[in-house]
From TrEMBL:
Residues 682-782 form the Glycoside hydrolase family domain. PROSITE patterns: GLYCOSYL_HYDROL_F2_2. Residues 316-552 form the Glycoside hydrolase family 2 catalytic domain. The lineage of its organism: Bacteria, Pseudomonadati, Verrucomicrobiota, Opitutia, Puniceicoccales. One of its GO terms (biological process) is carbohydrate metabolic process. NCBIfam families: GalA (NF041462). InterPro entries: Beta-gal/glucu_dom_sf, DUF4982, GalA-like, Galactose-bd-like_sf, GH, GH2_Domain-Containing, Glyco_hydro2_dom5, Glyco_hydro_2. Belongs to the glycosyl hydrolase 2 family. One of its GO terms (molecular function) is hydrolase activity, hydrolyzing O-glycosyl compounds. Residues 197-308 form the Glycoside hydrolase family 2 immunoglobulin-like beta-sandwich domain. This is Glycoside hydrolase family 2 protein. It comes from the Bacteria. Keywords: Glycosidase, Hydrolase, Signal. Residues 612-669 form the DUF4982 domain.
Length: 806
């Protein structure tokens, strides 16, 4: 009888909690933060000890009762390391930024109507190790800042007046990499409320394939979990929508997950003549998967997919949709000036846009999993991705991390390669080979449609090495060994997983080792690397190499090379940390952009005091010939070598340097560089026309020094102060100078070679306009206004009324 009653009550609960759609609520707002560790209290008596070991009874800041009212209130993504000062005693690779330990706490309410639903907390990334308690119960330990994790808190969730409390101890003293990794909850956090019978997180695999007969199909796999008390009978149904939103195909199956059972529904959805996804035309289809119980939709998930084929050929390189595509890729870490690793979503569009503008068609996520918002943007704009795993380790915890990466990312058409490691000392040993073999098999068990690679840096010719366990050989540097390797392994496709590592500082044209300055004429590179000009030649002239990934697209915090302190960041980028182009950017444009005339001159023409001295002028162009004209006098027309480009030695005289590019004798482009007067005004600009008033939209604004006539002054280094009015705040500042120790937060920043960047973010539920004003002693202030549009607010977890957090 009692059982029957339970079943009946359970049925009522299920019936009353059926959700047409799951609720995915942002938890990003209203966290409390405590910098530094808090010692856990030691129980004083046997009784206290006994109690402290029980579920729900965690002590100290892990306990719901801990008084955190004086902790700082903030939103995530948050990186506490970038907020702090530089310290010469701190780790060089992490950019001399102390990291350490900190705590976060947040409370929230669940209504009584939520009883019976499945309640999951999701964390997209916390750097680096963390321990999570929910309502005083130890809920999770995470061992990588790059792997997302979820916690099903349904069993110990509290409803009604009682608050739920999440306490997180973050240990960022751990280093997973040799670059700046930031510290804290630096990616999004979510609370998901679902029907007890629901699709698991990342539980839809729907990646189209073209069958041997040329027909397209989507083999769908849907993982369903029933966290309810009753066995369920459901239908799993998927509809595919094309780019215009028209439903074009569907498929379904029936399933009966018992209480607390996980099942996988599988079916195929043929799709006839889909529009293909490509770099130029990234057509995306929407896949809507629903769970239907008694005719009612109880859960629904939308994923996107693209119809495209990929193939790596050992002789002819990479093919996308059967067309050869040379991979023009860049490697990147995930930080930005002023923000560290806490990157608002809008910044991905900004950064990827710059790389596209450079002509890049591929991105290698070094050396770890990116955010899902980043991959969505890559899908949207047609950027190919080499998705990389962080830890080279085939033991269970690390296999869990690797599987998490593949499960999360395997629907993205942009992802074309899984990389299991970067430059591992075991790469030329049996141990490394055995590990790759196992890791590759794990990847394939989840996705067999993309090849597995590993970025090797040595041991290419050892008797045993990991190249025997991969589908595509990843070659880091050692470009002089391509031919020998290919001759020995003519059947193994080869890609330059990393190359170049050239040194350049934006706007510097003289190397001064005393002052940690490096010229940007593309003449210097790490001893294991090459200049941009050398690297691309070696790749482009070999059809058997699928392409390459330049180290790096953007400069990044940490790993200062070749100089260390006071340098705090790298200078490998084609663009600096703010995304301002260096010479490398234009060189890559000249190598990579097809069907567009590229013409740029380095250096600037402000060499006051150096009259008569020889200045090297580099002409960067994909034209056949260039003519250089100084103050109306031709310095001659020269043939442009497509790799080496062309240069002149010019006796400096102020005025105007004009370059004219010719193809087949006809002028195709011209570019002038003029000597400027001193900086007299500041100009603020951006590439967007409006912002969304949602509390998350973010805009980098360019701050530039101009002279009286409006010419950009490439040598201005004044300090600038900023003020902001309207519904927004300044969240970061930068100028690309890796020798600067100015704070990246606040209201002040110097220009570096004429430029700085101020990054603003809108307030939630806002509209109107944001106005940023920049002042500097003696310069006419610059003003910039941008409209803020009212938009629907992202769904959020409210902060409890009883809390003093507003
Ligand atoms: C590579 C390494 C990168 C970076 C680079 C600097 O060997 O894979 O992470 O350290 O060198 O040149």
């Amino acid at each position: 009888m009692r059982n029957l009653l339970q079943v009946f009550v359970g049925f009522l609960l299920l019936a009353s909690t059926a959700l047409a759609e799951r609720e995915t609520l942002s938890m990003d707002f209203g966290w409390r933060f405590h910098l530094g560790d808090i010692e856990m209290p030691v129980p004083q008596s046997h009784h206290e000890t006994y109690l402290s070991t029980k579920a729900g009874n965690a002590l100290g800041p892990a306990s719901p009762d801990w008084d955190d009212s004086d902790w700082r209130v903030l939103s995530v993504p948050h990186d506490w390391a970038v907020e702090g000062p530089f310290d010469p005693q701190a780790n060089v690779s992490q950019g001399y930024r102390p990291r350490g330990i900190a705590w976060y706490r947040r409370s929230f309410q669940l209504s009584e109507e939520d009883i019976g639903k499945n309640i999951e907390l999701q964390f997209d990334g916390i750097a680096s190790h963390c321990t999570v308690w929910i309502n005083g119960t130890l809920a999770h330990r995470n061992f990588s800042g790059y792997s997302s994790f979820q916690i099903d808190m349904t069993p110990f969730a509290l409803y009604g007046e009682e608050l739920n409390t999440v306490s997180i101890r973050v240990d960022a003293s751990v280093m997973e990499g040799w670059w700046y990794e930031g510290a804290g909850i630096y990616r999004h956090t979510w609370l998901v409320k679902r029907d007890p019978v629901h699709i698991e997180t990342d539980g839809v695999y729907a990646n189209p394939i073209r069958k041997e007969n040329g027909k397209w199909t989507i083999p769908v796999e849907v993982e369903v979990f029933n966290s309810g008390e009753l066995d369920a009978e459901i239908e799993i149904a998927t509809t595919v929508f094309d780019v215009t939103g028209r439903s074009v195909a569907s498929g379904k199956t029936k399933a009966a997950p018992k209480a607390l059972e996980q099942i996988t529904g599988k079916y195929e959805i043929p799709v006839s003549k889909p529009k293909l996804w490509s770099v130029e035309e990234p057509n995306l289809y929407t896949v809507r998967t629903q769970l239907i119980r008694s005719g009612e939709v109880v859960d629904q998930v939308e994923t996107q997919c693209g119809f495209r084929t990929i193939r790596f050929d050992a002789k002819e390189g990479f093919f996308l949709n059967d067309e050869p595509v040379k991979i023009k890729g860049i490697c990147n870490h995930q930080d930005h000036a002023g923000l560290g690793v806490a990157i608002p979503d809008a910044m991905w569009a900004f950064r990827l846009g710059k790389l596209k503008e450079m002509g890049a068609n591929a991105y290698r996520c070094t050396h770890a999993a990116p955010t899902k918002e980043f991959l969505e943007e890559c899908d949207r704009i047609g950027m190919l991705v080499m998705d990389e795993n962080r830890h080279f380790n085939s033991t269970p915890e690390y296999i869990r991390q690797l599987r998490g990466l593949v499960r999360r990312d395997r629907n993205h058409p942009s992802v074309i390669l899984w990389s299991v490691f970067n430059e591992e000392p075991m790469q030329a040993e049996r141990t490394g080979y055995e590990m790759v073999r196992r890791m590759a098999a794990e990847v394939k068990s989840l996705d067999s449609t993309r090849p597995v690679t590993a970025a090797m840096s040595d041991g290419f010719f050892s008797e045993i090495n990991v190249s025997a366990a991969v589908d595509v050989m990843g070659f880091n540097y050692s470009q002089d060994k391509y031919d020998k390797f290919h001759a020995l392994h003519p059947e193994l496709p080869l890609i330059s997983s990393e190359d170049t590592s050239a040194f350049e500082m934006r706007g510097e044209y003289e190397t001064d080792t005393e002052r940690n300055l490096i010229s940007s004429y593309d003449t210097q590179a790490a001893y294991w690397g090459n200049t941009h000009r050398e690297s691309w030649k070696m790749i482009n002239e070999r059809p058997f190499i699928a392409g390459g990934f330049v180290w790096t697209g953007f400069d990044y915090h940490g790993e200062p090379q070749p100089h260390v302190w006071p340098s705090i960041g790298s200078v490998f980028g084609c663009l600096d940390m703010c995304g301002f182009p260096k010479t490398g950017f234009y060189i890559r444009q000249s190598q990579w952009l097809e069907g567009e005339h590229v013409l740029e001159i380095a250096p600037h023409w402000n060499w006051q005091g150096r009259e008569g001295e020889a200045i090297e002028v580099l002409g960067i162009s994909n034209a056949e010939e260039l003519e250089l004209i100084l103050n109306g006098k031709s310095l001659g027309r020269k043939t442009v070598d497509p790799y080496e480009l062309v240069s002149w030695s010019v006796a400096y005289e102020p005025g105007e340097l004009l370059a004219i590019a010719y193809c087949q004798g006809r002028e195709v482009a011209r570019k002038t560089v003029k000597t400027t007067g001193p900086a007299s005004q500041i100009e603020l600009s951006s590439d967007r026309a409006s912002l969304s008033g949602d509390g998350v939209d973010t805009l980098p604004i360019t701050v530039a020094a101009l002279d009286d006539t409006g010419l950009f002054v490439p040598t201005a280094n004044q300090r600038v102060e900023f003020s902001i009015e309207g519904p927004g705040k300044i969240i970061g500042l930068g100028n690309g100078d890796i020798n600067s120790h100015e704070p990246e937060k606040g209201r002040r920043r110097s220009l570096y070679n004429g430029l700085a960047q101020v990054i603003v973010q809108t307030d939630p539920s806002s509209s109107g306009a944001i106005t940023v004003t920049a002042y500097s002693n003696g310069l006419i202030a610059g003003k910039f206004s941008i409209p803020v549009e009212q938009v629907e607010q992202p769904a959020r977890v409210a902060i409890p009324e009883s809390s003093d957090v507003k």
